[in-house]
Amino acid sequence: MVGSSVVVNYERENESMKQEKNWLKHGWADPCTADAVPILGGSLIPAVRVTSTIIDMTGEQKGTVLVTGGAGYIGSHTVVSLLEAGYDVVALDNFTNSVNSSKNESVALKRVEEITNKKVHFYRCDLLDKDAVERIFTAHRIDSVIHFAALKAVGESMTNPLLYYKNNMIGMINLLEVMDSLGIYKMVFSSSCTVYGEPERLPITEENPTGNVTNVYGRTKYFIEEMLKDAVRADPKWNIIALRYFNPVGAHKSGRIGEDPTKQFTNLMPYISQVAIGKKDVLTIFGNDYDTPDGTGVRDYVHVMDLASGHVAALNKLDKEHLGLKMYNLGTGKGISVMELIQTFERVNKVKIPYVIQERRAGDISSMYANATLAERELGWKAVHSVDEMCEDFWRWQTMNPNGYKTEQANGHH
């Protein structure tokens, strides 16, 4: 054990030295000491003196986390949990799946700052712009990365597959290459239960086979997981957790942040809520002939704040242990049908949801729910929010924000 401890400390020292050398190599200033640093357009801004570690109320040291896709639905909620856990957060987003203000800021992350009373360092940036990504890394002493940024609509992925392959896979390659060049090897990757395809057995454990994926979005997640396996095999310094989570729903209990879809292909609960509030006339249910108790698709709906705490738990694990690459399911372990979710939403929020049935969508599957005992045992994580809470919290977000984040100052255009 003593020997392995020395190796870990030596690697960390080398990684720190590697970061210092890269600041010098690229001619970028260390933001902890310089008066100004170059930013995305090449102009100089006053340096933010960012330390590599901060100390939370328990005295435990926490690092600086880069959150890609940080302005999005799951990303913004995770930033809340990271800040509350004592991490410093740098976030980037290109606003494909999120809303920007007239000042080109993230509306969601501005509200996160209000909720937590803590600062988020935000950059508008696309991962396909590798030079811009590198400039962000070199402006901060990043210790680890949580990677959410991706196109994520199943339906759209089937009609525009090349866009999904380019954005999701090349974006990840750029990110990994920048991290490697700067000696940063800790990552939590936002994977998906879609990597399992149509499951042969339920509930789904991490040992279920992957790869027989039914849609392009899921294939990008599967291919990235395979790419990470190869990267770790080639260079054991990588320390990565891939979280295969199931169907995120709900919103922060404050009602200040939630899911605000920017595209026509979207998730079930926002559609339910839009019908309930009168923005849409009727909910469309795709398929009622699945091999499930009521004929509608069954999913493992998990509260977004449970997912957020799962990412913090994963990061804590990486801070304490070298895993190489490890996969974990994040779910409740309970399957809920589309019809059951509609009925729960109606009961909890005292609303009516008119609906129509249409044919199944390409790429959809019948039933998926998780066995998440591995995450409970090894990460100390377990979903604690009920389906009733998911419906109640999302409805609070919707009624407090009937137009989502979009206002005269924030129109969602990008």
Automatic annotation (TrEMBL):
Q: Which GO terms describe its molecular function?
A: UDP-glucose 4-epimerase activity; UDP-N-acetylglucosamine 4-epimerase activity
Biological process annotations from GO: galactose catabolic process via UDP-galactose, Leloir pathway
Residue span, NAD(P)-binding domain: 66-393
InterPro entries named among the record's database cross-references: NAD(P)-bd_dom, NAD(P)-bd_dom_sf, UDP_G4E
- Gene Ontology CC, one term: cytosol
**A Pfam entry, by short name:** GDP_Man_Dehyd
Query: What Enzyme Commission number does this protein have?
Result: 5.1.3.7
Recorded hits in Gene3D superfamilies, A to Z, give: NAD(P)-binding Rossmann-like Domain (3.40.50.720), UDP-galactose 4-epimerase, domain 1 (3.90.25.10)
Keywords attached to this Swiss-Prot or TrEMBL record, sorted alphabetically, are: Carbohydrate metabolism, Galactose metabolism, Isomerase, NAD
Q: Which cofactor does it need?
A: NAD(+)
Annotated catalysed reactions: UDP-N-acetyl-alpha-D-glucosamine = UDP-N-acetyl-alpha-D-galactosamine
Looking up NCBIfam families in the UniProt record yields: galE (TIGR01179), PRK10675.1 (NF007956)
Q: What does this protein do?
A: Catalyzes two distinct but analogous reactions: the reversible epimerization of UDP-glucose to UDP-galactose and the reversible epimerization of UDP-N-acetylglucosamine to UDP-N-acetylgalactosamine. The reaction with UDP-Gal plays a critical role in the Leloir pathway of galactose catabolism in which galactose is converted to the glycolytic intermediate glucose 6-phosphate. It contributes to the catabolism of dietary galactose and enables the endogenous biosynthesis of both UDP-Gal and UDP-GalNAc when exogenous sources are limited.
State the name under which the record lists this protein.
UDP-N-acetylglucosamine 4-epimerase
